[in-house]
Amino acid sequence: MNTLAYSGGPGPWILLFPLFWAAVVIGGVTLLRRTVRRGRSGPWQARTTQEAPAEGSPITLLGRRFAAGEVDEDEYWRRLSVLDEQFGRGRKGGVA
User: Fold this and answer.
1) Rounded to an integer, what distance in angstroms lies between the CA atom of residue 60 and that of residue 64?
2) Pairwise CA distance, residues 96 & 10, whole Å
3) How far apart are CA 21 and CA 32, in angstroms?
4) Cα atoms found within 13 Å of the Cα of residue 44, Cβ hemisphere only
5) CA-to-CA distance for 74 and 81, rounded, in angstroms?
6) Structure confidence at residue 23 (pLDDT)
7) Considering only CA atoms, which of 9, 32, 28 is closest in space to residue 20?
8) Please, which pLDDT band fits residue 52 given cuts at 50, 70 and 90?
9) Range scoring the smallest mean pLDDT among 8-12, 30-34, 40-44, 74-78
10) Within 10 Å of residue 91's Cβ, how many Cβ atoms?
């Protein structure tokens, strides 16, 4: 009686199981590594940036001070004209 249970050994299908598990492990490691890399610049980075804001350009800082009410409108425009000469659109932020 020849049945499927005994057909002369497992055959080449036995290689499928280790290949399947190897693919699962490699996929899991890859997914974990990509998640950890994104985590460094993900939501945790935004929290630290809000707690200690990074120094921006002088024009940006002046805009923030004006928005916070530390500088009135006349002083804002006066300082902006001076900063625009040094750090304006035509320059790359270097010293004159």
Assistant:
1) 6
2) 79
3) 16
4) 7
5) 11
6) 96
7) 28
8) very low
9) 40-44
10) 12
Cα gap 65→89, rounded to integer Å: 21
Of 34, 79, 49, 48, residue with least CA distance to 61: 79
pLDDT at residue 72 tops 50: yes
pTM, two decimals, is 0.36
Residue 49 is encoded by which pair of tokens? 């940036």
- 53 near 45, Cβ under 8 Å? no
**Residue 80 one-letter amino acid:** L
Look at the block and give the residue holding tokens 């932020």.
93
Q: Which amino acid is at 40?
A: R
What Cα–Cα distance (Å) separates residue 27 from each residue in 6, 33, 92?
34, 10, 44
